[in-house]
């Protein structure tokens, strides 16, 4: 096996052992080779970062809700500790996002040839800027949100011309972009419009659904529909 195969195998071992920090290191080294990644390599890279960032995002949410509870009680001493702890997690979040965004800019996007890869990496870029926007404030939040919007728009333009409406990457992009509108830009109407259009377009072309992506695509369509149900009931709740 060559160096690239070794790194991929190391990443798979790390995934099995649930040692995602090491999985990230292996896949980052593959990305650094400035080659177009295979679908398998691309997915390994995505899974590695998703787990590493996911753990910190979950921690941040828990700490933030504890902080809110303490604010209501007015416990100043505890609040100081909680805020410092939250900032520690935010530093880690910033570092991980910076890491993958750097790899995307320097290696992955410049080496991407296939339309599918370009959509995938621009979507990823949108996702990690969105994760930065989740906890940033002031100008930092504004900048992260703008970067996220631009990346998602680029990915969407490419997806419209390169991928069928039933393609799991195109559907996953619509799912995440609509969440961005809802959570980061506080635009439930735009979020619903985007999710509904993606869902309807996929339904209209269900016959283009390939065997291998059937499960992935239908799962994402279900998530789009779940969000639509939730968001429309939220909007009606606010109006009444």
Automatic annotation (TrEMBL):
Transmembrane portions of the chain: none
Marked site (Interaction with phosphoserine on interacting protein) residue numbers: 57, 130
Domain 14-3-3: 4-239
Alphabetized Gene3D superfamilies for the sequence: 14-3-3 domain
SUPFAM superfamilies associated with the record: 14-3-3 protein
Quaternary structure and partners: Homodimer, and heterodimer with other family members.
Family: Belongs to the 14-3-3 family.
Protein name from the UniProt record: 14-3-3 protein epsilon
């Amino acid at each position: 096996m060559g160096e690239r195969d070794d790194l991929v195998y190391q990443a798979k071992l790390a995934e099995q052992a649930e040692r995602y920090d090491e999985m990230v290191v292996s896949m980052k080294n593959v990305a650094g080779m400035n080659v177009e990644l295979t679908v398998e390599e691309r997915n390994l890279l995505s899974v590695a970062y998703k787990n590493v960032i996911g753990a910190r995002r979950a921690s941040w949410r828990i700490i933030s809700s504890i902080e809110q509870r303490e604010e209501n009680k007015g416990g100043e001493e505890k609040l100081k500790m909680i805020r410092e702890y939250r900032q520690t997690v935010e530093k880690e979040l910033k570092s991980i996002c910076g890491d993958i965004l750097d790899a995307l800019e320097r290696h992955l996007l410049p080496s991407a040839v296939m339309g599918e890869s370009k959509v995938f990496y621009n979507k990823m870029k949108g996702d990690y800027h969105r994760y930065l926007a989740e906890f940033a404030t002031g100008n930092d939040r504004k900048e992260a949100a703008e970067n996220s919007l631009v990346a998602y728009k680029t990915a969407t333009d490419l997806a419209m011309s390169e991928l069928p409406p039933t393609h799991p990457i195109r559907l996953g992009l619509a799912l995440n972009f609509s969440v961005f509108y809802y959570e980061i830009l506080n635009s439930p109407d735009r979020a619903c419009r985007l999710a509904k259009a993606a869902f309807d377009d996929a339904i209209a072309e269900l016959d283009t659904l390939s065997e291998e992506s059937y499960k992935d695509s239908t799962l994402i369509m279900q998530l789009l529909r779940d969000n639509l149900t939730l968001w429309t009931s939220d909007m009606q709740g606010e109006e009444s």
